[in-house]
Amino acid sequence: MDQKISQKVVERLTLYHSILIEYLEEGIEAISSPQIAARLKIDDSQVRKDFKLLNNAGKCRVGYLVKDLKESIENTLGFSAPKDAFIIGAGNVGLALAKYDNFTNYGLNVLALFDNDPIKVGMEFDNKQIFHISKLPNLAERLNVDIVILTVPRQQAQKVADFAVESGIKYIWNFSPVILRVPSGVNVWNENLIASFLQFAYKNIIGS
Description:
Elements: H1 7-25, E1 30-31, H2 33-40, H3 44-52, E2 64-65, H4 66-77, E3 83-88, H5 92-98, E4 108-115, E5 124-125, E6 128-132, H6 136-143, E7 147-150, H7 154-166, E8 171-174, E9 187-190, H8 193-206
Parallel strand pairs: 3-4, 3-7, 4-6, 7-8, 8-9
Antiparallel strand pairs: 1-2, 5-6
């Protein structure tokens, strides 16, 4: 698709996709924009506007075919092009992400984990090997991987990110609670769990 999609639209499309998976699992073949809007508590016109970006007009008095709509979202967001990745940091968060099977449904294949803990190095978790961090450059080149999921402690995050960039990594999904400094050409997506909780608490608990 040539048209640039905003981050807000991408976020809504991923939510629509989750709903469509539920419908498929329940054997429901069609869905309407009002049904989706009601689930997400947004305006029906916004849903229809988003779907126009997918070149999926739906059918009168039928709605949208769930299977076709799901495939349209997957093609638009690139689910159909599998992407290999490494996890750096075999702690609680890293191991939880390594075990999350649904990543494969969205085209993300976690091949291995990396850590510097001699107790963890050499172990296998969920059929994924844990390598010493020093092996990253070689394996990234051999397996043509340029995506890492960073789950190391805050104090180590920048140093590890620097090493990852030197190893040829171009995309970092950062779960460490720190804003990374990276050179141009390297993309970082921050997934700060503490910041998300604070925003949730302020909006729903403190601000209520």
